[in-house]
Specification:
This protein is 75% helix and 0% strand. It has 445 residues and is mostly helical. α9 (141-154) runs antiparallel to α10 (159-171). The radius of gyration is 36 Å and the shape is elongated.
Protein backbone atom coordinates (compact mmCIF):
# COMPACT_ATOMS: atom_id res chain seq x y z
CA UNK A 1 0.00 0.00 0.00
CA UNK A 2 2.87 2.33 0.79
CA UNK A 3 4.46 1.48 -2.56
CA UNK A 4 1.19 2.17 -4.34
CA UNK A 5 0.85 5.57 -2.64
CA UNK A 6 4.39 6.46 -3.63
CA UNK A 7 3.94 5.39 -7.26
CA UNK A 8 0.38 6.74 -7.69
CA UNK A 9 0.03 9.73 -5.31
CA UNK A 10 -2.78 11.24 -7.39
CA UNK A 11 -4.85 8.06 -7.72
CA UNK A 12 -7.95 8.60 -5.61
CA UNK A 13 -8.79 4.91 -5.35
CA UNK A 14 -5.35 4.13 -3.90
CA UNK A 15 -5.46 6.96 -1.38
CA UNK A 16 -9.01 6.10 -0.29
CA UNK A 17 -8.18 2.42 0.12
CA UNK A 18 -5.01 3.23 2.09
CA UNK A 19 -6.78 5.62 4.47
CA UNK A 20 -9.70 3.26 5.13
CA UNK A 21 -7.32 0.30 5.65
CA UNK A 22 -5.38 2.30 8.23
CA UNK A 23 -8.64 3.30 9.92
CA UNK A 24 -9.79 -0.31 10.05
CA UNK A 25 -6.52 -1.30 11.75
CA UNK A 26 -7.05 1.40 14.41
CA UNK A 27 -4.36 3.66 12.93
CA UNK A 28 -6.50 6.84 12.78
CA UNK A 29 -3.51 9.21 12.82
CA UNK A 30 -2.02 7.43 9.80
CA UNK A 31 -5.39 7.56 8.03
CA UNK A 32 -5.58 11.30 8.64
CA UNK A 33 -2.04 11.80 7.33
CA UNK A 34 -2.82 9.90 4.12
CA UNK A 35 -5.79 12.16 3.40
CA UNK A 36 -3.97 15.33 4.40
CA UNK A 37 -1.21 14.41 1.96
CA UNK A 38 -3.89 13.91 -0.68
CA UNK A 39 -5.20 17.40 0.05
CA UNK A 40 -1.85 18.84 -1.05
CA UNK A 41 -1.88 17.10 -4.45
CA UNK A 42 -2.28 19.42 -7.50
CA UNK A 43 -5.11 17.39 -8.98
CA UNK A 44 -7.66 19.17 -11.19
CA UNK A 45 -10.10 16.32 -11.50
CA UNK A 46 -13.28 16.99 -9.40
CA UNK A 47 -13.94 13.28 -9.04
CA UNK A 48 -10.63 12.85 -7.18
CA UNK A 49 -11.76 15.34 -4.52
CA UNK A 50 -15.23 13.85 -4.17
CA UNK A 51 -13.76 10.39 -3.61
CA UNK A 52 -11.43 11.74 -0.94
CA UNK A 53 -14.36 13.64 0.66
CA UNK A 54 -16.18 10.33 1.00
CA UNK A 55 -13.23 8.79 2.79
CA UNK A 56 -12.73 11.94 4.88
CA UNK A 57 -16.16 11.66 6.46
CA UNK A 58 -15.18 8.17 7.65
CA UNK A 59 -11.87 9.33 9.07
CA UNK A 60 -13.35 12.49 10.58
CA UNK A 61 -16.90 11.33 11.47
CA UNK A 62 -19.49 14.09 11.42
CA UNK A 63 -21.86 12.23 13.74
CA UNK A 64 -19.64 12.94 16.76
CA UNK A 65 -21.16 16.13 18.27
CA UNK A 66 -18.13 16.87 20.43
CA UNK A 67 -15.84 17.15 17.43
CA UNK A 68 -18.31 17.97 14.66
CA UNK A 69 -17.10 21.51 13.99
CA UNK A 70 -13.45 20.48 13.61
CA UNK A 71 -14.28 17.38 11.59
CA UNK A 72 -16.60 19.37 9.34
CA UNK A 73 -13.77 21.73 8.46
CA UNK A 74 -11.56 18.80 7.54
CA UNK A 75 -14.19 17.20 5.29
CA UNK A 76 -15.26 20.51 3.75
CA UNK A 77 -11.72 21.19 2.59
CA UNK A 78 -12.08 18.39 0.03
CA UNK A 79 -15.59 19.47 -0.94
CA UNK A 80 -14.44 23.03 -1.49
CA UNK A 81 -11.80 21.91 -3.98
CA UNK A 82 -14.28 19.67 -5.78
CA UNK A 83 -16.80 22.51 -5.99
CA UNK A 84 -14.30 25.07 -7.30
CA UNK A 85 -13.08 22.76 -10.03
CA UNK A 86 -16.60 21.63 -10.94
CA UNK A 87 -17.66 25.22 -11.50
CA UNK A 88 -14.55 26.02 -13.51
CA UNK A 89 -15.12 22.97 -15.72
CA UNK A 90 -18.93 23.37 -15.87
CA UNK A 91 -19.32 19.95 -14.30
CA UNK A 92 -22.90 20.24 -13.08
CA UNK A 93 -23.08 16.60 -12.00
CA UNK A 94 -20.28 17.03 -9.48
CA UNK A 95 -21.57 20.42 -8.34
CA UNK A 96 -24.92 18.83 -7.63
CA UNK A 97 -23.18 15.97 -5.81
CA UNK A 98 -21.47 18.51 -3.55
CA UNK A 99 -24.87 20.04 -2.73
CA UNK A 100 -26.25 16.60 -1.91
CA UNK A 101 -23.21 15.86 0.25
CA UNK A 102 -23.82 19.06 2.23
CA UNK A 103 -27.51 18.24 2.53
CA UNK A 104 -26.95 14.71 3.80
CA UNK A 105 -24.59 16.05 6.44
CA UNK A 106 -27.09 18.71 7.56
CA UNK A 107 -25.12 21.65 6.20
CA UNK A 108 -28.25 23.23 4.83
CA UNK A 109 -26.95 26.76 4.25
CA UNK A 110 -23.99 25.44 2.26
CA UNK A 111 -26.28 23.18 0.22
CA UNK A 112 -28.60 26.11 -0.46
CA UNK A 113 -25.70 28.29 -1.70
CA UNK A 114 -24.61 25.60 -4.17
CA UNK A 115 -28.15 25.06 -5.46
CA UNK A 116 -28.79 28.78 -5.81
CA UNK A 117 -25.59 29.14 -7.85
CA UNK A 118 -26.63 26.28 -10.12
CA UNK A 119 -30.11 27.68 -10.62
CA UNK A 120 -28.74 31.12 -11.46
CA UNK A 121 -26.04 29.86 -13.85
CA UNK A 122 -27.55 26.78 -15.48
CA UNK A 123 -31.19 26.56 -14.34
CA UNK A 124 -30.56 22.97 -13.32
CA UNK A 125 -33.95 21.35 -12.62
CA UNK A 126 -32.67 18.97 -9.93
CA UNK A 127 -31.00 21.88 -8.17
CA UNK A 128 -34.31 23.76 -8.25
CA UNK A 129 -36.07 20.83 -6.63
CA UNK A 130 -33.43 20.62 -3.92
CA UNK A 131 -33.53 24.38 -3.41
CA UNK A 132 -37.28 24.26 -2.81
CA UNK A 133 -36.82 21.68 -0.05
CA UNK A 134 -33.90 23.59 1.44
CA UNK A 135 -35.88 26.82 1.63
CA UNK A 136 -38.61 24.88 3.40
CA UNK A 137 -36.17 23.29 5.85
CA UNK A 138 -34.55 26.66 6.59
CA UNK A 139 -37.89 28.31 7.36
CA UNK A 140 -38.06 30.39 4.18
CA UNK A 141 -41.60 29.70 2.90
CA UNK A 142 -41.82 32.62 0.48
CA UNK A 143 -38.53 31.72 -1.18
CA UNK A 144 -39.64 28.08 -1.32
CA UNK A 145 -42.88 28.96 -3.06
CA UNK A 146 -41.17 31.25 -5.56
CA UNK A 147 -38.62 28.54 -6.35
CA UNK A 148 -41.38 26.02 -6.96
CA UNK A 149 -43.28 28.45 -9.17
CA UNK A 150 -40.15 29.03 -11.27
CA UNK A 151 -39.59 25.29 -11.49
CA UNK A 152 -43.10 24.67 -12.81
CA UNK A 153 -42.68 27.54 -15.24
CA UNK A 154 -39.39 26.04 -16.44
CA UNK A 155 -40.74 22.49 -16.74
CA UNK A 156 -44.53 22.77 -17.16
CA UNK A 157 -44.87 19.11 -18.13
CA UNK A 158 -43.53 17.86 -14.77
CA UNK A 159 -46.76 16.55 -13.26
CA UNK A 160 -45.25 15.80 -9.86
CA UNK A 161 -43.99 19.34 -9.42
CA UNK A 162 -47.30 20.74 -10.65
CA UNK A 163 -49.09 18.70 -7.98
CA UNK A 164 -46.57 19.83 -5.38
CA UNK A 165 -47.17 23.46 -6.29
CA UNK A 166 -50.93 22.92 -6.01
CA UNK A 167 -50.46 21.46 -2.52
CA UNK A 168 -48.19 24.34 -1.44
CA UNK A 169 -50.67 26.92 -2.68
CA UNK A 170 -53.47 25.13 -0.87
CA UNK A 171 -51.61 25.36 2.45
CA UNK A 172 -51.29 29.11 1.83
CA UNK A 173 -54.99 29.32 0.91
CA UNK A 174 -54.23 30.60 -2.58
CA UNK A 175 -57.08 28.48 -3.82
CA UNK A 176 -57.56 29.98 -7.28
CA UNK A 177 -53.96 29.29 -8.36
CA UNK A 178 -53.98 25.93 -6.56
CA UNK A 179 -57.08 24.91 -8.52
CA UNK A 180 -55.50 25.87 -11.84
CA UNK A 181 -52.34 23.90 -11.02
CA UNK A 182 -54.26 20.81 -9.94
CA UNK A 183 -56.43 20.96 -13.06
CA UNK A 184 -53.31 21.16 -15.25
CA UNK A 185 -51.82 18.16 -13.42
CA UNK A 186 -55.02 16.16 -13.98
CA UNK A 187 -55.06 17.05 -17.67
CA UNK A 188 -51.43 15.99 -18.11
CA UNK A 189 -51.26 12.93 -15.92
CA UNK A 190 -54.81 11.87 -15.21
CA UNK A 191 -56.58 12.24 -11.91
CA UNK A 192 -57.60 10.04 -9.02
CA UNK A 193 -60.91 10.21 -7.20
CA UNK A 194 -59.25 12.37 -4.56
CA UNK A 195 -57.88 14.74 -7.21
CA UNK A 196 -61.28 15.33 -8.74
CA UNK A 197 -62.95 15.74 -5.36
CA UNK A 198 -60.39 18.28 -4.24
CA UNK A 199 -60.58 20.23 -7.49
CA UNK A 200 -64.38 20.33 -7.37
CA UNK A 201 -64.19 21.62 -3.78
CA UNK A 202 -61.79 24.34 -4.94
CA UNK A 203 -64.16 25.41 -7.70
CA UNK A 204 -67.18 25.37 -5.39
CA UNK A 205 -65.33 27.33 -2.73
CA UNK A 206 -64.31 29.92 -5.32
CA UNK A 207 -67.92 30.30 -6.44
CA UNK A 208 -67.13 28.73 -9.83
CA UNK A 209 -70.21 26.53 -9.79
CA UNK A 210 -70.46 25.96 -13.55
CA UNK A 211 -66.81 24.87 -13.74
CA UNK A 212 -67.45 22.51 -10.81
CA UNK A 213 -70.43 20.98 -12.61
CA UNK A 214 -68.35 20.50 -15.77
CA UNK A 215 -65.74 18.64 -13.73
CA UNK A 216 -68.41 16.57 -12.04
CA UNK A 217 -69.88 15.54 -15.39
CA UNK A 218 -66.47 14.05 -16.23
CA UNK A 219 -65.90 12.58 -12.76
CA UNK A 220 -69.27 10.81 -12.63
CA UNK A 221 -68.51 9.22 -16.01
CA UNK A 222 -65.07 8.09 -14.89
CA UNK A 223 -66.20 6.97 -11.43
CA UNK A 224 -69.97 6.37 -11.68
CA UNK A 225 -70.17 4.37 -8.44
CA UNK A 226 -68.52 6.99 -6.21
CA UNK A 227 -71.32 8.58 -4.16
CA UNK A 228 -69.13 11.49 -3.07
CA UNK A 229 -69.29 13.05 -6.54
CA UNK A 230 -73.09 13.04 -6.43
CA UNK A 231 -72.98 14.83 -3.08
CA UNK A 232 -70.75 17.52 -4.58
CA UNK A 233 -73.13 17.78 -7.52
CA UNK A 234 -76.01 18.26 -5.09
CA UNK A 235 -74.14 21.13 -3.42
CA UNK A 236 -73.43 22.73 -6.81
CA UNK A 237 -77.05 22.58 -7.94
CA UNK A 238 -78.19 23.85 -4.55
CA UNK A 239 -75.83 26.80 -4.97
CA UNK A 240 -77.39 27.55 -8.37
CA UNK A 241 -80.87 27.38 -6.86
CA UNK A 242 -81.79 24.27 -8.88
CA UNK A 243 -83.31 22.48 -5.92
CA UNK A 244 -84.97 19.63 -7.82
CA UNK A 245 -81.68 18.64 -9.48
CA UNK A 246 -79.90 18.98 -6.15
CA UNK A 247 -82.41 16.62 -4.54
CA UNK A 248 -81.94 14.12 -7.38
CA UNK A 249 -78.19 14.15 -6.76
CA UNK A 250 -78.65 13.72 -3.00
CA UNK A 251 -80.94 10.76 -3.66
CA UNK A 252 -78.44 9.22 -6.10
CA UNK A 253 -75.63 9.52 -3.55
CA UNK A 254 -77.78 7.99 -0.82
CA UNK A 255 -78.85 5.09 -3.05
CA UNK A 256 -75.24 4.34 -4.06
CA UNK A 257 -73.96 4.17 -0.51
CA UNK A 258 -76.90 2.02 0.58
CA UNK A 259 -76.43 -0.36 -2.35
CA UNK A 260 -72.87 -0.89 -1.14
CA UNK A 261 -74.33 -2.21 2.13
CA UNK A 262 -72.71 0.40 4.33
CA UNK A 263 -73.53 3.68 6.02
CA UNK A 264 -70.78 5.85 4.55
CA UNK A 265 -72.54 9.18 5.05
CA UNK A 266 -72.89 10.77 8.44
CA UNK A 267 -75.36 13.13 10.02
CA UNK A 268 -74.25 16.21 8.09
CA UNK A 269 -75.18 14.63 4.77
CA UNK A 270 -78.75 13.99 5.91
CA UNK A 271 -78.96 17.43 7.49
CA UNK A 272 -78.06 19.10 4.18
CA UNK A 273 -80.33 16.74 2.28
CA UNK A 274 -83.19 17.62 4.62
CA UNK A 275 -82.53 21.35 4.43
CA UNK A 276 -82.64 21.18 0.62
CA UNK A 277 -85.92 19.28 0.68
CA UNK A 278 -87.37 21.84 3.08
CA UNK A 279 -86.30 24.68 0.81
CA UNK A 280 -88.11 22.94 -2.06
CA UNK A 281 -91.29 22.69 0.03
CA UNK A 282 -91.08 18.90 0.40
CA UNK A 283 -91.57 19.00 4.15
CA UNK A 284 -92.47 15.38 4.89
CA UNK A 285 -89.38 14.12 3.07
CA UNK A 286 -87.31 16.82 4.74
CA UNK A 287 -88.50 15.69 8.17
CA UNK A 288 -87.45 12.10 7.46
CA UNK A 289 -83.93 13.13 6.48
CA UNK A 290 -83.59 15.51 9.42
CA UNK A 291 -84.77 12.82 11.84
CA UNK A 292 -82.19 10.46 10.35
CA UNK A 293 -79.53 13.13 10.83
CA UNK A 294 -80.47 13.43 14.50
CA UNK A 295 -80.27 9.64 14.92
CA UNK A 296 -76.83 9.48 13.31
CA UNK A 297 -75.32 12.44 15.16
CA UNK A 298 -72.64 11.22 17.61
CA UNK A 299 -73.42 11.89 21.26
CA UNK A 300 -70.36 14.08 21.65
CA UNK A 301 -71.39 16.28 18.72
CA UNK A 302 -73.78 18.30 20.82
CA UNK A 303 -73.78 21.44 18.68
CA UNK A 304 -74.84 19.67 15.48
CA UNK A 305 -77.51 17.65 17.28
CA UNK A 306 -79.03 20.76 18.84
CA UNK A 307 -78.93 22.64 15.54
CA UNK A 308 -80.78 19.90 13.64
CA UNK A 309 -83.36 19.47 16.42
CA UNK A 310 -84.04 23.19 16.39
CA UNK A 311 -84.29 23.26 12.59
CA UNK A 312 -86.82 20.42 12.40
CA UNK A 313 -88.80 21.72 15.35
CA UNK A 314 -89.05 25.23 13.91
CA UNK A 315 -90.01 23.84 10.48
CA UNK A 316 -92.96 22.06 12.06
CA UNK A 317 -93.94 25.20 13.99
CA UNK A 318 -94.05 27.17 10.75
CA UNK A 319 -96.36 24.53 9.29
CA UNK A 320 -98.52 24.37 12.44
CA UNK A 321 -97.92 20.61 12.49
CA UNK A 322 -96.65 18.16 15.09
CA UNK A 323 -96.51 20.97 17.66
CA UNK A 324 -95.92 18.64 20.59
CA UNK A 325 -93.01 16.87 18.87
CA UNK A 326 -91.70 20.24 17.68
CA UNK A 327 -91.72 21.51 21.24
CA UNK A 328 -89.84 18.44 22.49
CA UNK A 329 -87.16 18.89 19.84
CA UNK A 330 -86.74 22.59 20.58
CA UNK A 331 -86.61 22.02 24.33
CA UNK A 332 -83.96 19.33 23.80
CA UNK A 333 -81.96 21.71 21.63
CA UNK A 334 -82.05 24.30 24.41
CA UNK A 335 -80.96 21.71 26.97
CA UNK A 336 -78.03 20.64 24.81
CA UNK A 337 -77.02 24.20 23.92
CA UNK A 338 -78.44 26.67 26.43
CA UNK A 339 -78.46 30.43 25.84
CA UNK A 340 -78.22 30.25 22.04
CA UNK A 341 -80.36 33.10 20.75
CA UNK A 342 -81.79 31.23 17.76
CA UNK A 343 -82.79 28.27 19.91
CA UNK A 344 -84.33 30.44 22.62
CA UNK A 345 -86.31 32.27 19.93
CA UNK A 346 -87.65 28.93 18.69
CA UNK A 347 -88.67 28.03 22.23
CA UNK A 348 -90.53 31.33 22.62
CA UNK A 349 -92.20 30.80 19.26
CA UNK A 350 -93.32 27.32 20.35
CA UNK A 351 -94.94 28.78 23.47
CA UNK A 352 -96.70 31.33 21.27
CA UNK A 353 -98.02 28.61 18.98
CA UNK A 354 -99.58 26.72 21.90
CA UNK A 355 -101.02 29.87 23.48
CA UNK A 356 -98.58 30.29 26.38
CA UNK A 357 -98.06 33.99 25.68
CA UNK A 358 -96.41 35.06 28.95
CA UNK A 359 -93.78 32.34 28.63
CA UNK A 360 -93.40 33.16 24.95
CA UNK A 361 -92.71 36.83 25.65
CA UNK A 362 -90.22 35.98 28.39
CA UNK A 363 -88.19 33.63 26.16
CA UNK A 364 -88.31 35.88 23.11
CA UNK A 365 -87.04 38.84 25.09
CA UNK A 366 -84.31 36.62 26.49
CA UNK A 367 -83.40 35.64 22.93
CA UNK A 368 -83.08 39.31 21.99
CA UNK A 369 -81.02 40.04 25.10
CA UNK A 370 -78.55 37.29 24.11
CA UNK A 371 -77.72 39.18 20.91
CA UNK A 372 -74.59 41.21 21.42
CA UNK A 373 -75.12 43.32 18.31
CA UNK A 374 -78.43 42.66 16.50
CA UNK A 375 -78.08 42.29 12.74
CA UNK A 376 -80.57 42.26 9.89
CA UNK A 377 -81.17 38.51 10.19
CA UNK A 378 -82.15 38.98 13.85
CA UNK A 379 -85.20 41.01 12.82
CA UNK A 380 -87.28 37.81 13.02
CA UNK A 381 -86.79 37.65 16.79
CA UNK A 382 -88.02 41.23 17.17
CA UNK A 383 -90.93 40.49 14.84
CA UNK A 384 -91.87 37.50 17.00
CA UNK A 385 -91.92 39.72 20.10
CA UNK A 386 -94.22 42.15 18.32
CA UNK A 387 -96.63 39.39 17.31
CA UNK A 388 -96.78 38.00 20.85
CA UNK A 389 -97.52 41.49 22.17
CA UNK A 390 -100.28 41.77 19.57
CA UNK A 391 -101.74 38.46 20.71
CA UNK A 392 -101.66 39.73 24.30
CA UNK A 393 -103.59 42.85 23.29
CA UNK A 394 -100.68 45.23 23.96
CA UNK A 395 -101.20 47.08 20.72
CA UNK A 396 -98.98 50.14 21.12
CA UNK A 397 -96.01 48.06 22.24
CA UNK A 398 -96.67 45.60 19.43
CA UNK A 399 -96.74 48.31 16.76
CA UNK A 400 -93.53 49.92 18.02
CA UNK A 401 -91.78 46.55 18.19
CA UNK A 402 -92.84 45.56 14.69
CA UNK A 403 -91.61 48.87 13.31
CA UNK A 404 -88.31 48.27 15.06
CA UNK A 405 -88.06 44.85 13.39
CA UNK A 406 -88.59 46.44 9.98
CA UNK A 407 -85.99 49.13 10.70
CA UNK A 408 -83.49 46.42 11.57
CA UNK A 409 -83.90 44.79 8.14
CA UNK A 410 -85.37 47.37 5.74
CA UNK A 411 -84.29 45.44 2.62
CA UNK A 412 -86.44 42.40 3.43
CA UNK A 413 -89.56 42.97 1.35
CA UNK A 414 -91.34 39.92 2.80
CA UNK A 415 -90.77 41.21 6.32
CA UNK A 416 -91.98 44.64 5.28
CA UNK A 417 -95.18 43.18 3.88
CA UNK A 418 -95.82 41.17 7.04
CA UNK A 419 -95.25 44.21 9.25
CA UNK A 420 -97.54 46.28 7.05
CA UNK A 421 -100.35 43.74 7.45
CA UNK A 422 -99.77 43.48 11.21
CA UNK A 423 -99.88 47.25 11.65
CA UNK A 424 -103.13 47.34 9.70
CA UNK A 425 -104.60 44.73 12.02
CA UNK A 426 -103.50 46.73 15.03
CA UNK A 427 -105.36 49.80 13.77
CA UNK A 428 -108.61 47.92 13.40
CA UNK A 429 -111.20 48.13 16.25
CA UNK A 430 -111.48 45.17 18.59
CA UNK A 431 -108.83 42.66 19.54
CA UNK A 432 -107.46 40.00 17.25
CA UNK A 433 -104.88 37.35 17.80
CA UNK A 434 -102.05 37.37 15.37
CA UNK A 435 -101.41 34.28 13.35
CA UNK A 436 -97.87 33.17 12.67
CA UNK A 437 -96.16 34.99 9.82
CA UNK A 438 -94.64 32.99 6.99
CA UNK A 439 -91.06 32.13 7.70
CA UNK A 440 -88.29 29.62 7.24
CA UNK A 441 -86.84 26.95 9.46
CA UNK A 442 -83.98 28.38 11.47
CA UNK A 443 -80.52 27.27 12.40
CA UNK A 444 -78.03 28.57 14.87
CA UNK A 445 -76.11 31.47 13.22
Amino acid sequence: MEDALEKFPQAAEVRVAASLRALARGQRTQAEQILEQGLRQPVREPRYWMNLAGAAQEVWPLADPSAREVHQQQVNAFLSKALTLARQQEDSATELEVAQFYLLNNQLEAAREVCQHMVQTTGNVTARKMLFRLHQALGEPDAALETLRELVKEVPADVDQMRLLAAELETRRVYDEAADCLESAIQMGGGSVEDYQKLVNFRLGLGQTDRALTLLARATRLYPDMPGFWVQEAFAYREKGQLDRAIESFAKADALQQSAGMQSFGHLFYYRYGVTLEAAGRHDEAARQLEKSITLTPEENVEDAANTMNYLGFMWLEQNRNLEKAGELIENANRLQPDVSAFVDSLGWYYFKVGRFEEALKELRRAEALLQAPEAEDSEIVEHIGLVLEAMGRRQEAAATLQRAQALNPDDSALGERVKKALKRLQEPGEKEAGPPPGKAKTQP
